[in-house]
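Students often ask why we bother encoding 3D structure as a string. The short answer is that it lets us treat folding as translation between two languages. Here is a chain of 420 residues written in the first language.
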Amino acid sequence: MRFNRSTIRGLLGSIALIATLAPALAADDVSFDLKYGVLVSLTGESAPAGQAWNAATKLGIDQIKASIDRLGLEGITLELTDSQDSQGSPAAGVEGAQKLVQIDNVDVIVGDFYSSITSAVATAVTMPNGKLIFTGGTSPALSKLNTSTPAMLWQPVPADDLQGKVLAQIIAKEFGANAKINVAARNDAYGTALAEVFTTAWKAGGGTVPKEVLYNPEQPTLDTEAQQLVDGAPDGWLFIDFCPTFEKLALPLGRTGKWDPAKSFGADSLAQCARQGGKSYPGFRATQASAAGGTSFGAFQKLFAEKVDKGIPFESTMAQPFDSTFVVFLAALEAKSSDPTEIANHVQNVTNDPGTPYTYEQIDDAIKAVLKGEKIHYMGASGPLNFGPDGRVNASLFDVWQHQPDNAPATVIETIAFKP
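And here it is in the second language, the structure alphabet:
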């Protein structure tokens, strides 16, 4: 059979049209409406971090929506339905979550970064109503709330049972394994759990803890606690608190004349106090899971600077709520459903090997691959993620931050690979 040029051009045009329609045809059986909600401290002492968390979540959703529009996936919609202020309180958090779930009917809540709020919300609201929650909380106790399969509570931030051991490792490197370290922690789920992990690891390695002080950060003054913490001739200190309330303890510590910030270490929440509008304590060091471990982190930081209000400070940990939006969406796409349980069944699938790696910058290609039934591995701005069946992210890189003079932002002085 012979074809003239006109016929060939027609055939080529048909082939091109079919290629153009392929993504749409592949998506014919995929249709869902995905609703996100944010729960975080938008007012009060933690407002700067909360506003950044909210902005990062919205930024991720906007990137996905733009991709959906580019690909012409008319059957799929997603939105940030509402953002609720937890006010740093479990009671307010539960009230906000109830609004998101019962009135807004969201499928997933992104937040809170307080473990105590997350625990209250998960047990009282999200789990009883079959909703997902992606938290910034780091308490090891949170994953234990996942008593059924699949996990409905996911932690994109490494849990404190890793961080506590990392702190023991770097403090031993600084002062020696047999050193005396006084420990101060806020008396809540975050503080007590991390303090317990550290002291257990520290004592197992040969160190001692002359004083361990748990305190209520809402107390009017912490002078008594400060005096206790400088007793016992410690070689150094470990503090577990949030930047705004730590100032209340640091002031009386300074007045004792016996406290040296350069001999002090802190948990992840004390890594970047100056960036949050608080004070820096020159020489003070803090560990934080490396949220800048992904190949797309630099692009995310640039995107945040371009798209987010200049008054909202950027923090590396904002990669975690940003990544959460993509994980939820890609799991929903693979499940072909916005049903939270179905999404939960696919979270591991899209965040682990084997699978072709895609970052958020390649979201169009990742969507096409999922629609073709191909296996993908979403590589977050914060790193590879590799979620486990218990809802925890698996990470082993930790940054050591050091506070700088003149209230300048803290800087990373070392990144270590944790080896148990």
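Translate back mentally: The first helix runs from residue 5 to 26. Keep this in mind for the problem set.
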